[in-house]
Amino acid sequence: MLRYAIERLLTAIPTLLLLITLAFFLIRLAPGGPFDSERVLSPEIEQNLNQLYHLDESLPVQYFRYMGQILRLDFGPSFQYRDWTVNQLIMQGFPVSLTIGGFALLGGLILGVLIGLLAALRQNTWPDYTLMSLAMAGLSIPAFVLAPLLVLLFAVKFGWLPAGGWEWHWQYMLLPIITLGMPLVAYVARLTRASMIEVMRSAFIRTARAKGLPMWLIVLRHALKPSLLPVVSYLGPAAAAIIAGSVVIEKIFTVPGLGTYFVQGALNRDYTLVLGVVIFYGMLIILFNLLVDLLYAWMDPQIRLNNRIRH
Amino acid sequence: MSMLGQWRQTLWLQRPGSLWADALARLMRNRAAMLACVLLLLLVVLVCAGPLLSPWDAEIPDWDNASMPPDLSSKHWFGTDAIGRDLFVRVLEGGRVSLLVALLATIVSLVIGVSYGAIAGYFGGRLDAMMMRMVDILYALPFLFFVILLIVIFQRNILLIFIAIGAINWLDMARIVRGQTLSLRNRPFVHAAEAIGVQSKYIISRHIVPNLLGVVVVYATLTIPQIILMESFLSFLGLGVQEPATSWGALVSDGAQEMQTAPWSLLFPGMFLVVTLFCFNFIGDGLRDALDPREHL
Fold it and tell me: What is the set of domains in chain A, with CATH numbers?
């Protein structure tokens, strides 16, 4: 188990390096500079600006300087939001994104697993068909179609919830969390149902049944853990999907989260901000994947005992 | 045997009771999937031929009738948008863009994913381990953020963007194909080909790849809706298709801004988008159940 953990940790390092390198050089390929959109600057001022931000150095020098900064977790100053560092912008936006994303992830998982279990235990009956049709709808209705409809219904028509904006109050969080979490509920429900059905057919469940154990005990004690394995391994991609989804959700509900900053940064060629957000989220996903791998290994005896990954 | 002959044999010329005949029979019994097929076919015909039915043009505004609700007498069947362009024609034009772009990106991801996976799986050993470790590493990168970076770089050139999306979106395909190839490469017909000295590249292209068709078809059907969704998502953010061209995502985005006064401008493109995604998802599910009757996702 320890060897497995170290091995996983070691693969996270090249991933991180690749992430930073790719992002750094990709953004430098982009035509146009960060100071293009403003009024024409005199050459001296432009030179001074370039010097201030080290844009006048050769690319490799800039690259290693940036690497050094990242190691100190310093993402540098923002090009567009003057007087702000990227760290400050991230600190500003991330708590908001984390709140929405965290609740969406947690709620989506719990609800998805419950729905999946229910559907699996009632396989091929009407509750199963209804729930799975709903899950299909959840997968097929994109958040940016659902969100305006929900706003139209709950904010405009009934006036129960605000249509957008942000305060630290549940009323402002509810619609973003629902729209962000919905595809996750659908996907997790389908995953859980499929794996639960497979587990319920396996020999050790038949044995448990033959012993005359009650159904709820079989499910809780024997079937639940193995059937959650696919869900656990989906956690990494789920977190990535939630982060990506938050970009759109934040735009629809005008939530001042990190995704909003990212899109703005991409449009304004705010190099440092875009890089900062990509690397920050990339690190987060890599870290999360690492934790998920460890959780998986702890849950799956095949890895715990054999120290091998199944493919 | 020619490549074409090989494919044809895999697909059609097989006895009843073969994998494909059985799969087809199972698919035909799946009512949801069949309905989705018919619906999708209708949709494609409508998207291709529909604009010819309407007297209006997608880009020329009807100035007297801006933001008009659906109306049969003036032939604005889906109403008009804020500057008077006919929504019926625009929704169909947008659909053409969305579908084409998704198809293109899917083909790109297919070509890369299948060749990568087949090579890794066929040669195995250290090469396989290295190639798959690479896939693992790429998996951990925040995909959407890279797409947005690429868009910034390619200046919103829609064609390049979707080639880029396809070029990033091949990881799942590579994994699935590799898994299948691993089991195929120990089958007698591959050994036979090796024994008579067929070159590796021909074994892969003529013996491995045609036999991967099942998984590839299933997975491609599930990739198309993903990419339609991705395109809509980007267009919604203002990063995808640019005016005057349009797509379902761009139309939904416009519609969402006017939904309080003109709800039809959100409903029609939204409906087309959702129905299309439904169809692809049902067909993909149906194909998977048909080709692999074990209980799956």
Answer: 91-310 (1.10.3720.10)
